[in-house]
Design brief:
- The protein has 687 residues and is α/β, with parallel strands linked by helices.
- Helix content is 38%, strand content 23%.
- It contains 25 helices and 25 strands.
- It has a 7-stranded antiparallel sheet. A 7-stranded mixed sheet has the order 14-13-15-16-12-17-20, sandwiched between helices.
- The longest helix is centred in the first third of the chain and has 15 residues, at 170-184.
């Protein structure tokens, strides 16, 4: 073949009889003074074939070629379709291999060329070593090849019990491969789902689903059955949703798998939640900014009350709560939890699993826990009136209750608890704080590009919207699955409920007032927390927009609250008209006051304003006096105030800021500048 391809001189010494393909390629490469990769190019060119891209092989193609065939013919499956099977070979003249593979698959075989050593390495990676090289026990000990499936009930702390040989049937091997690769790629969930004509497997990595492979429907259904068997589920029942669990050992790490199946047409969809039993972390391990960490730890010092954590599924709520419990668990307190499910086993903590079929609900478990003399109680979710009432009772009788609550942001915890049947007075008395959390994808350190020069059109729009210029751009490489992102960063709102917020809750103030009070009390909004990571060059505005900017539920909540209300205070009628025209054109609701005394009277009757735009020099109570009065009253303390002044100078600015002004703008400032400053103040206030 080498002579035919013009690579080797016909007079060169012939290889010894019985030499295998790897020896032949090595001898030819040495004789021709070529690396084997270039030799593959020449052979492929001669036979008018393509060079094999082994790294781009489709995982589902393994179904078409058995391990025995792969080793016998030194071939590796690259891709398959309804009519064709593409394989890598070092010998395009191997008619026997072509016939055997075509007969076994029922498809036309297409060859690609690759050196035999590279093909052998690919076979080991996908199929495992040949039987005559490594025995079963050795394969099971190899962390790169073994995926041991274990029933939870049979697990011993020191040994793992395998129930499947790594060299089993192709579908079983593919099932193991899917689980192994999902874990290695850092997936939190594996989705195995039917489609039109074929099934597909997707991994959720860093909160985003990415395609892993397409699978023939017959194979997909067998994969789901394999998973159901291992999870003690009924494989004969495909008409009802089922839940199960199992445990795997991959690369010498133990993972719990939570399995959920649901009927989907004539098949089933299966979702596998992956829980790394080695990953339960402390708060210090979670990349939480120091300022937010201090505020969280302050909430954990309370001996009674409710601390609620909110966020969508997969936002890290449980991880944060477990980290908090690890801080509290010093051996001197009795910590008990009620969860559905128990995601991680925590030392020095008594954990109770909700079992609705056995009558163990959140509410019934809580009642039992209260008879166990607990100091700290973790509730997996407050989702109904009964559970909320018991949690409040526990909080008022000397217990610290940590719980997740479904709300859009930290302030949203208050109306959620009210919706669950708690009275305003009970919420104000028991709620100690609320933490809202999301996760942003971190740019991949291997491929992120420093952002120099002009921004793209989309980047410019986002920079103008958020008032921050991004420092990096997500690119994409094999290390991050060509997404441009790898790993995640937490963004948090930590609302501490102090006297002013307690008073606002008991007096039934709205969300805008609570938000302003929380920000005034030191809370960073989710948006501010996200932008801080942008300014550190660890994420992009595109990612901020995906996680924070497109939050439809939060947008709907703000829409229901109506447009921001602005009180314009100025003794100049023309200036008031100018501000009203500008602000109403932006969609704000405007109220006017002609002097300081009138402004204070308006605020006394109705303090629910989003912003006060205040003239500095007026007859009667001037702007500085009005500002100090606003800051001195509990019902107006949190309202943002922007000073409109005709004077300038550092002394004036310092005096205004010391008195509590949020910003100031010169009377002669253009409309664009006034708009931008007002938007910035409202954005900092979370409005």
């Amino acid at each position: 073949m080498a002579v035919q391809a013009g690579v080797l001189d016909p007079t060169a010494n012939a290889p010894p009889p019985g030499a295998d393909l790897e020896q032949l390629w090595s001898r030819v490469a040495i004789a021709a003074d070529l690396p084997q990769s270039e030799l593959a190019l020449l052979v492929a060119d001669y036979f008018r074939l393509k060079v094999a891209q082994l790294g781009a092989a489709e995982p589902e193609a393994i179904l078409e070629v058995s391990a025995e065939q792969a080793w016998k013919f030194c071939v590796f499956p690259l891709a398959q379709s309804d009519r064709h099977l593409v394989v890598a070979t070092p010998d395009p003249t191997d008619v026997e291999a072509e016939r055997a593979l075509g007969f076994g698959s029922g498809k036309a075989v297409e060859f690609r060329v690759a050196p035999p050593g590279e093909i052998a390495a690919a076979i080991v990676e996908r199929y495992g070593p040949p039987d005559d090289e490594v025995g079963f026990e050795q394969v099971m000990e190899d962390p790169l090849e073994a995926v041991e499936l274990i029933h939870v009930e049979d697990v011993d702390d020191e040994e793992f019990l395998s129930i499947e040989d790594i060299h089993a049937a192709p579908v079983v091997k593919l099932t193991n491969l899917i689980i192994r690769d999902g874990i290695r790629q850092g997936a939190s969930d594996i989705h195995i789902e039917p489609g039109h004509g074929s099934g597909k497997v997707r991994f959720r990595v860093d909160g985003v689903l990415r395609k892993y492979m397409d699978v023939p429907m017959s194979a997909m259904m067998r994969i789901v059955s394999q998973i159901k068997i291992r999870s003690d589920m009924d494989i004969a029942d495909r008409l009802r949703p089922q839940d199960g669990r199992t445990r795997v050992n991959v690369d010498r790490n133990l993972y719990d798998l939570r399995i959920s199946t649901i009927p989907a047409g004539k098949a089933e969809k299966c979702v596998i939640r992956i829980l790394d039993q080695n990953e339960s972390q402390t708060l210090d391990d979670l990349s939480i900014p120091e300022s937010e960490l201090v505020r969280i730890r302050q909430l954990l010092t309370f001996r009674e009350g409710i601390v609620a954590v909110t966020g969508p599924t997969g936002s890290g709520k449980t991880t944060t709560l477990y980290g908090a419990l690890r801080e509290i668990a010093d051996g001197r307190v009795n910590i008990m939890t009620v969860e559905d499910p128990i995601e991680y086993s925590l030392p020095s903590v008594t954990q109770t699993q909700v079992e609705v079929r056995q009558g163990m609900t959140f509410a019934s478990a809580l009642r039992a826990i209260l008879r166990q003399d607990p100091d700290v109680i973790l509730i997996g979710e407050i989702r109904d009136t009964e559970t909320a009432g018991i949690a409040a009772q526990a909080a008022m009788t000397g217990h610290l209750v940590l719980a997740t609550v479904h709300a859009n942001d930290a302030v949203g915890v208050v109306p959620r608890l009210l919706d669950l049947g708690l009275d305003h007075s009970v919420v104000s008395e028991t709620l100690r704080g609320a933490i809202a959390q999301r996760l942003l994808r971190r740019v991949c350190p291997d491929c992120s590009e420093p952002l120099v020069g002009d921004l793209t059109q989309d980047e410019t729009k986002l920079a103008e919207r958020y008032g921050v210029r991004p420092l990096v751009r997500a690119s994409g490489c094999p290390e991050c699955g060509h997404t441009g992102y790898r790993g995640r960063l937490p963004i948090l709102e930590v609302m501490a409920v102090g006297p002013s917020i307690e008073d606002a809750i008991s007096h039934k103030k709205g969300g805008a007032t609570l938000q302003s009070l929380a920000v005034r009390g030191g809370m960073s909004t989710l948006e501010q927390s996200a932008l801080a990571w942008v300014e550190e060059g660890l994420t992009t505005l595109v990612e901020v927009e995906r996680v924070v900017g497109s939050n439809k539920e939060m947008a709907e909540t703000r829409k229901e609250q109506g447009p921001p209300r602005i009180l314009v205070v100025d003794d100049d009628e023309d200036m008031r008209l100018k501000h009203r025209t500008l602000l109403e054109g932006e969609g704000y609701q405007v109220t006017e006051a002609e002097d300081g005394d009138r402004a204070l009277a308006v605020l006394k009757d109705d303090p629910d304003f989003s912003l006060v735009l205040l003239d500095l020099k007026m007859p009667g109570a001037d702007g500085l006096e009005v500002l100090r009065t606003i800051r001195g009253r509990s019902d107006t303390f949190a309202i943002p105030v922007m000073i409109s002044t005709g004077t300038s100078g550092r002394g004036t600015e310092v005096e205004l800021l010391d008195a509590g002004a949020d910003d100031f703008v010169h009377k002669r400032a253009g409309a664009d500048k006034v708009r931008a400053r007002i938007r910035a103040v409202l954005r900092r206030s979370g409005l």
